[in-house]
Amino acid sequence: MGYDYPPPIHFSSRISPVIVGIFLFIGSEIMLFGSFFTVYFFDRVVNHTHPWPPPPYERPVFVAGVNTLILVTSSFTMHWATQSIKRGNRAGLQAGMVLTFLLGLTFLLTQVIEYHRIGFNTSDTSFAATFFGLTGLHGCHVFVGLTILLAMTIRSFRGHFSPEHHHGIEVGGIYWHFVDVMWIIVYTTVYLL
Amino acid sequence: MTTPAHEDTHVDHTDVPEHGVYVPPSGWHRWTYPGWLRVIWATPLFGALGLGLVVLLRWAASWDPIWKWSSIATVELTAVPLGFLVGLGGFDYWARYCSGKPTLPEDHSRHGARSWRDYFRINTDHKVIGVQYVVTTMTFFVIGGFLALLFRAELAHPGDQYFNPQTFNALVTDHASLMIFLVIIPAFAGLGNFVIPLMIGAADMAFPRLNALSYWLLPIAGIMLLVGLAIPGGGPSAGWTCYAPLCQHQPLGDVFFNMAVQWAGASSIMTALNFLVTIITMRAPGMTFWRMPLLVWANFTTSMLVVLATPFIAGSQFFVMFDRVMHTNFFEAGNGGYVIGYQHIFWFYSHPAVYIMILPGFGIISEVVAVMSRKPIFGYRLMALSLLAILVLGFSVWAHHMFVAGMAGWLRVPIMVTTLLIAVPTGIKVFSWLATLWEGRIHFTTSMLFAVGFIFCFVIGGLSGIWLGAVPIDIQANQSYYIVAHIHYVLFGGSVFTIFAGIYYWYPKMTGRMYNERLGQLHFWLTFIGFNLTFFPMHYIGLQGMPRRVADYANRFGGINEFISIASFGLGASTLIFLYNMIWSWAHGPAAPNNPWRGLGIEWQVSSPPPIFNFEEVPQVVGSPYEYGVPGARHVIFGAPQPEPVPAD
Amino acid sequence: MRHRASFLQLALIAVGSAVVLIVVAYAVPWLPYPASREAGRINFVFWYAEWVSIFIFAIVAAPLVYSLWAFRVKENDLSDGPPTHGHTGLEILWTAIPFLLVTSIAIASAIVLAKNGRAGTDPLRITVTGQQFAWTFTYPNGQTYPVLRMPVDRHVKLTLTSKDVLHSFWIPELYQKQDAVPGLPTHLVVSPTRTGVYPVVCVELCGLGHSIMRSQAIVMSQNDYDAWYSGATKAASKPAPGGAAGGLAVFNGNGCGACHTFSAAHSTGKVGPDLDKLKQEAAGAHQPLDAFIRQSIVDPNAYIAPGYQKGVMPPTFAQTIPGPKLDQLVQYLASNAK
Q1: Which residue of A has its CA nearest to B287?
Q2: For residue C149, what are the β-bridge partners?
Q3: Nearest residue on chain A to B3, judged by CA atoms?
Q4: Which domains does chain B carry?
Q5: Which residues, at least 6 apart from B315, have a Cβ–Cβ distance to it below 8 Å?
């Protein structure tokens, strides 16, 4: 019954559905981080918890700061990868993707090592809860981002993507930039304030 | 054919002479092909992997005890459903995509449903998914209602007769959780899924594979909640609100609640993303935002609420799970935690949740009232704007659930103001529907009866909401049976009535059959009377001093409770008529015409049920969807030459 | 068949529904008789909202009922109604009037809320402690009692707290309610105006014993209250034989009297077994009295008296009552058991 194939899609917006979709999804991700920032606000500010961090805990501000630079650099390499494929430069795309992935992996591994050396665990007061909560949530997003980057890297080495068709790179890039910007906010809140 | 403004995301059928042809698997391939056979081994495999991961990690880190059930449950409640979804085939396409294999041409040959089997697999057709949703949610409606009848039997007399307090609390918790997360929110998702692409002239949703996956998350969440009831130690028993710190100190069954909420929330967000992208980017030419049917407007605003608010309940459940499983101190008062923080985070979602549970209903009522009164919706633009106003204001009122929670006293006044103000856009809608009815030609079909019953009950529920918005009244009424009355007037007399209205209205379109009108009318009257007899007296006992969520109460409330329990059994029985009508008519009802209600909407211009790909060519929208009373007015025409795509307003 | 709208009929339906609602509103005693100043003010807001609601309901019912009756058509009637798209004036009206009505409710409520929060210059200060599953009340004399006693016509400022999970303190006849939050003291002002005995209930789900977590608020004349208070304070300051004063303090401080009857402590709780019958119960459990009492406190689920249920008495007293105090309590109960 019915027709054999769907009619051609009519697009009622100049923006591609996939791009609208990823931006809306990032909206929901921002709200998820928002809930973690909210509990941090309640546990530290509304609860008048002084001093913060409570002694004897300390935050590895410097290492995390270096990590921040690594992650920001990875956003630049991601941007380079995207621009490369838009101009048809496949080598640039592949190099950019590999660099982005490696920088992201470095970031994640550094965070894991810091967790081991940090000197407090999850049950040490609400300070630890919010510390691990915010950085852990971000770490999970880095993990997901790395998975996406890996898939896109594999695809770029297997001949996919062209100057006309590169939504995968764009969407992956948008997600990765989100992860990067969110880290700057997390870093400022958790390590600096 | 129009030139797309950007890349086409599917292969143009004129280039590829033949599509992928489906060859059923044979031999041992049947066990590796996505489907139920693969589920049989993939699910326990993932379960074993999850268990192994936890046990190995705990052994390697020398954490004691190694078999910590709360940790194991948390991981298993993620791994086992994942295994199920992998087995069923929800991720196959993306796995192939990520591995970089060459893109296959799209195979449309298995799209849609030709037999009952097609409803029990991963199916990307929005019409099939819509039916899957509606049938699943109605099943959980019956189960959740049955749980209510169990505790209403207990409540008929003071004292404990049938259930111990643990079971009673679990029944109350699961009743509410099922009704909210597994019935009302997804029923609207299902009706929307079926109707929206048809209404906007699209062949399907923007992301059909995501759509298919989002459905299957739902039975996972429901089964999780029900299995939680049977867990040794006790089921989820901290209420659907699961307040800290009670929630962290509950039996293991509460973890099942926490995780079920996450699965249901994920399903909800995926569907909302799909709705938003579809409505924004796939409307037929000529359908500007101001020519969209109000159901589409309603689902658009609802989906914005879902996408922005649902992550907050996910966060709240993460925090209580972390507090329980990893002994964090987000909400532990002794260790720097702030107890009331849970309530703020929880209600920041759960208040918009109530708008998620009613706005699509408003859209359905607008459709039904316009068609059944043969009149345009009165004040269409203001109706659309009022939906947007509720969207925005809905985020500003969450703390009215916390007027006596012990939060900062000054916060109560601004929250009271925003709470009372949100009655204004809601009132606008009620008055518009009344003005639409005025001087119309009213046909009392079952869907119209439910629409009118909705207006009556929702006005009562809304008025009791205004009372609760006034803080002094709330101080007396909060957490008493007055709240139970208010909740049910807006959620049952409100949302469920609109769901019934929608099901009866679109039943011919979805099934291709007409339901039995007399049984429908009987269902309405028994439900309406049973509902009011059950829930109206609760206003009284609440104000008089009966708390909610209690199995035992002061003797003087015994008589009224007995009356309510008997009425509730009548209400439960009325649902049987609905079920019988729906099932029998689907099998044996008379064939439905394309347009039994003589509607102008695009969904009524195609066959009942619609063709598998909805349209042969994209329709052309030429006017408003509600131009009743204007001779010759059309909302849509087919086969006209198409102009360039009109950018969205 | 077109029907000319009759505004007289509309008005009749509106007035009719209003009359029905007014009868329902006044004939049913919706609220308990207000027994405090705060209740009196809340009552005012309630009735104001009631009148606004009757008005709104009437103007909704009138066109609804009228339309359903006057404009209904048979199934075979295929005509459409007039294509009325809207009326800007009407739409402005039904936006502005509800706006003004809800604003007036907000203003009235804000004023009442502010007044209800004022405790005056010299309130009686009592601390209310919620725990699973009892309420206890600590007075300025430092003593804790299972029942709330207040003098009439005096402001009472309650400070609420919880020992474990969230509870919510409600005296329905006094129309005042507030959550008891662990780690965060909350406040409530009550100014009783009528003597009487009023039930106190818990209205925040707090576990298995939530439905039975009840107490009483006894409002007495000022003289009766003074008599009770001075008597109770004297009794507390006198050293009682055998350290019983210490034992009584532990008994009261942990809310035992809220659930148990024990004549020596003047408590009449009916939720748990009668402690006056302790000797019998110990015999029934085949245990010596002291050991039986101790086990019943620190491990309540080990032996359940016939007719009672597992899991209601909190199993946490072993952690929350320090050793020496527990000894005092056991001795107190054993020496006063019948």
Answers
A1: A12
A2: C218
A3: A10
A4: 30-98 (no CATH), 116-588 (1.20.210.10)
A5: A32, A34, A35, A36, A38, A39, B345
Query: Quick one: tokens of C314?
Result: 């909190």
Does residue B12 register a pLDDT over 60? no
State the pLDDT at residue C245.
67
Chain-chain contact of A39 with B206 (C-beta, under 8 angstroms): no
Contacts 24+ apart (CB under 8 A), C68-74: C68/B437, C68/B442, C68/B452, C70/C3, C70/C5, C70/C9, C71/B373, C71/B437, C71/B438, C71/B439, C71/B440, C71/B441, C71/B442, C71/C3, C72/B442, C72/B443, C72/B444, C73/B441, C73/B442, C73/B443, C73/C1
Please report, for residues B225, B494, B514, B532, the alpha-carbon distance to residue B488 in angstroms, rounded to integers and kept in the order given.
Answer: 21, 8, 30, 10
Distances (CA, A) of B439 to B53, B119, B368, C79: 68, 43, 16, 12
Mutate which of C76, C177, C197, C214 to disrupt the B interface (most B C-beta within 10 Å)? C177
DSSP B206: S
Dig out the tokens for A188 from the structure: 């400022």
Residue C201, strand partner residues: C170, C214
Residue extents of the structural domains in chain A: 17-192
Give residue-wise pLDDT tens across range A88-135: 999 999 999 999 999 999 999 999 999 999 989 898 889 999 999 999
Digit-coded pLDDT (tens) for A133-185: 999 999 999 999 999 999 999 999 999 999 999 999 999 999 999 999 999 99
- Shortest distance between the Cα of B292 and any Cα of chain C, in A, equals 15
Q: Say if the Cβ atoms of C172 and B549 lie within 8 Å.
A: no
Mutation to test the A interface, candidates B13, B335, B594, B618, most A Cβ within 10 Å:
B335
Interface mutation target, options C13, C90, C179, chain B, most CBs of B under 10 Å:
C179
pLDDT at C195: 95
Residue B553 to chain C, least CA–CA distance (Å): 7
SS (H, E, C) chain C: CCCCCCHHHHHHHHHHHHHHHHHHHHHCCCCCCCCEHHHHHHHHHHHHHHHHHHHHHHHHHHHHHHHHHHCECCCCCCCCCCCCCCCHHHHHHHHHHHHHHHHHHHHHHHHHHHHHCCCCCCCEEEEEEEECCEEEEECCCCCEECCEEEECCCCEEEEEEECCCCEEEEEHHHCEEEEEECCECEEEEECECCCEEEEEEECCCCCCCHHHCEEEEEEECHHHHHHHHHHHHHHHHCCCHHHHHHHHHHHHHCCHHHHCEEHHHCEECCCCCCHHHHHHHHHHCCCCHHHHHHHHHHCCCCCCCCCCCCCCCCCCHHHHCCHHHHHHHHHHHHHHCC
CATH code that applies to domain A17-192: 1.20.120.80
Ranges B134-143, B453-462, C290-299: which has the least confidence: C290-299
pLDDT of residue A3: 67
Q: Is B644 on the interface with A (CB under 8 A)?
A: no
* Confidence at residue B3, expressed as pLDDT on a 0 to 100 scale: 37
Distance from CA of A183 to the nearest CA of B (A): 18
> Tell me, what's the ipTM?
0.95
Please tell me the pTM assigned to this model: 0.93
A20 touches chain B (CB under 8 A): yes
Tell me the residues of chain C between 137 and 176 that have a Cβ less than 8 Å away from chain B: 160, 164-166, 168, 170, 172-173, 175-176
Residue in B closest to C110 by C-alpha: B413
Which of B165, B323, B351, B188 lies closest to B258 in space, CA to CA?
B323
Pairing between β-strand C156-162 and β-strand C186-190 as defined by DSSP bridges: antiparallel
Q: How far is Cα A3 from Cα C225, in angstroms, rounded to an integer?
A: 87
* pLDDT for the residue B641: 59
